[in-house]
Protein: LysE type translocator family protein
Amino acid sequence: MNLESLIGFVVASVLVLAIPGPSFLYVIAVSRQQSIMDAAWNILGMGFGGIIIATLTAFGVATLIKGFPVILVFLKITGVMYFFWIGLRLLWRTYYIQKKDLDGGGHSELSSGGPFLQGFWVEILNPKAVLFFISLLPQFVTPNGYASYVQLLILGLIFVALQISTDLTVLYLATKISLSGRLSGKYGAYASGLVFVGLGFFLIFSI
Structure:
């Protein structure tokens, strides 16, 4: 891996992360219903999931998965169901729960195994994340220098670090300009639930 390839990868990663997408919407949604610290742990969980995917990519497991489309189909269906479950559960609880509970501290609404674990599963069960790592990382591996799996792992870790930094920045800005949970209450909770359901539909039609 030479300096040119590394710089090119960083530039490409920044451009990808700068485009608002599912990750951006997810961070906004969780920040509406969780405390800032819980939302930050959620982001770190997504980062850890990214590290796992990067590691699998580096050692060829992700490529093996790509060779068996049925695995990706299963991953896609599981991810869609997970997003639907989070969104519909939030909508249901918002509809039936007492208003005083909604106003008292909505961060528990999305709690399912803890914010870190929730973020981890959101990343792992996102087939687009798997395909993204498979497609992007190998493009910047050079024949000279470290072994290919070492280069892939380094590139993956760099991307995850950039992703975490971007998501934490989005979270910070969201709290400052009131895009986040400061809209807490019935309508903010409904909006968050609809975002998660929308992400489920996005996964259905994106692959």
Q: What stands out?
A: The chain has a mean pLDDT of 74. Residues 40-206 form one domain. The chain has ten helices and no strands. The radius of gyration is 18 Å.
